[in-house]
Write a structure and sequence with these properties.
By secondary structure, the chain is an alpha+beta fold. It has one domain: NADH Oxidase. It has six helices and four strands, in the order ααβααβαβαβ. It has a four-stranded antiparallel sheet. Helix 1 crosses helix 5 and helix 2 crosses helix 5. It binds flavin mononucleotide. Flavin mononucleotide binds next to loops.
C-alpha cells in the first residue's frame, strides 16, 4: 500500500474482531509513531499500551461519562453513546498517547507545539495500523485527569488521544469537503 492509498482509504473503525494484535505488530505501529516529526526533534510523546480488561473497562466508563455529558450539553450528541461510546473496551489493545509540555519547541509563541508533535505521532500510528490491515480511531472524549489517574501518568503530561486498535469488523465510508473550498491563493 503506498502512502496516498493509506491516507485516502484509512477510516475510523469502531468495531473490532476478537482476534489479538501481536506485540510485534504493535511495536511496528508504535515505531511509526515514534518516527513522526516533532518541533526541535523533542519527541514529546509517550505511549501507554493497555491490554488489561479491567483497565479497558474503567477507560470505557471514563469515555462514556464524557460522551453522556457532551450529549446533555448539545442535543445533536444524543446518539453519541451508541455511535461513539461503548466500543473502546472491545478492542484487543488500546494505546494512550501522552505528551510532555516540557518537550515543546523553542518557539516564543508556540508553546503548544508538543501537542502538534504528538498529533503527528498519532496520525503516523493510524496510517501504519491501516497499512497493516488494522482498524483504529482517535478518541478525544474523556476526562483526561481520570485517564491519567487510571494509568498513573506523571502530573504535567497531557493526554493527546486514546487509540483502540484491532482487526476491523466494519467497513466505513466518509467524504471530505472539496479541496477547492480549502485552498486559497496568495491570501485567505
Ligand atoms: C482530534 C480528533 C478527535 C476525535 N475524537 C473522536 C472521539 O472522541 N470519538 C470518536 O468516535 N471519534 C473521534 N474522532 C474520529 C473522527 O470522528 C473521524 O476522524 C472523522 O469523523 C472522519 O472520519 P474518518 O476518520 O473515518 O475519515 C476524532 C478524530 C480526531 C482527529
Amino acid at each position: 500500500m503506498n502512502v496516498f492509498e493509506a491516507i485516502k482509504n484509512r477510516r475510523s473503525i469502531r468495531k473490532y474482531q476478537k482476534k489479538n494484535v501481536s506485540d510485534a505488530i504493535l511495536q511496528k505501529i508504535l515505531d511509526a509513531g515514534n518516527w513522526a516529526p516533532s518541533a526541535a526533534n523533542r519527541q514529546p510523546w509517550e505511549f501507554v499500551i493497555v491490554r488489561n480488561a479491567e483497565t479497558k473497562n474503567r477507560l470505557q466508563e471514563i469515555i462514556d461519562e464524557n460522551v453522556v455529558i457532551s450529549a446533555t450539553w448539545e442535543s445533536r450528541f444524543a446518539t453519541y453513546l451508541d455511535r461513539y461510546g461503548r466500543f473502546v473496551k472491545t478492542a484487543p489493545v488500546v494505546v494512550i498517547v501522552l505528551a510532555d509540555p516540557l518537550k515543546t519547541g523553542p518557539h516564543v509563541f508556540g508553546e503548544e507545539t508538543y501537542m502538534l508533535s504528538a498529533g503527528a505521532a498519532i496520525q503516523n500510528i493510524l496510517l501504519a495500523a491501516h497499512a497493516m490491515g488494522l482498524g483504529t480511531v482517535w478518541i478525544s472524549m474523556y476526562d483526561e485527569f481520570k485517564v491519567k489517574e487510571l494509568i498513573k501518568a506523571p502530573k504535567g503530561y497531557k493526554v493527546v488521544g486514546v487509540i483502540p486498535i484491532g482487526y476491523p469488523a466494519e467497513k466505513r465510508e466518509k467524504s471530505r469537503i472539496k479541496l477547492d473550498k480549502k485552498i486559497h491563493f496568495e491570501k485567505f
